Amino acid sequence: MKKLTSFFSRLAGTVIQAAPAGTVAGALIFYIVAVVYSIMTGDRKVLYTAVGFAVLNAAGIAGAMILKLPENFHKYDQDIIGRNFVGVSKKCRLFSHSLDLLFSHRANAALEELKMLESDYTDRLTDSEKAVVSFYTARCYDLMTYYPNALIYYERAREQGFHDKVLPFLNARCTGSNGDTDEAVKLYTEVLGDENSPFRMYVLTDVGRMYLKLNQPAKAMEWFSEAIEKHYNYAEALGGAAIAQTMMKNLNEGQRLYREALINHIKDPEGFASYFKEVLGSVMLEKDIEKKLGGENDTKN
What we know:
This protein is mainly α.
């Protein structure tokens, strides 16, 4: 039964992929045959019919292009931007260029252009476009670590009608980076409880990292352990757990988790390895100092 289902699934996929090319080929053959027939027989009715079909065909293609253009217009974040800033107007070009800057890691320059768009084109922006501008302005501030400003613009985007699932997740992350841990956990928990959110699998590791930055490895380990158990963002969870265990001076367990994270293809393995060795070195140095101090105390006694 599974083999039969798989066969029909592949067959359907092949049909869908072949349909556009087959339709174009069939139309061309029809037009060629119609023209040849008209020339050979002198029957103009067939030619006029073919021309009529060609005009309708061209109109259909043009209509489909107009409908489909917004779906493939933007180079970045098409699913977030949607039908906003579609066109060749100055505001659309300015928005597109600001995103080029943002995705080229030039957040400061991108912010300047977004602020220009916000101030100089206010009367020419739709409500939806204003919400998108506020969201990307928040992203710029977030990446520049100006978290209070980022939170203001994330909230403004929400008030203006920005509803993409990425917003509550980034708002939670930014809140944590801004130092409001309890509020961040509350916001993260809301994301985790949203079964339709594609970002819920990153929540547990995000909270774990937040507690690592606060030098609370035991608390961080609770979140990483749950992520490992549920296989949420698995490699990153293993990496975070390796750091947490090492910070708690459970060096053997830390080393084991470190190897597991690398085996499971943790993102940025070189950066992770450098971070882990830095933490390990710090812990080893601390243990050496404690050992020396303990020896000195024994000598004095």
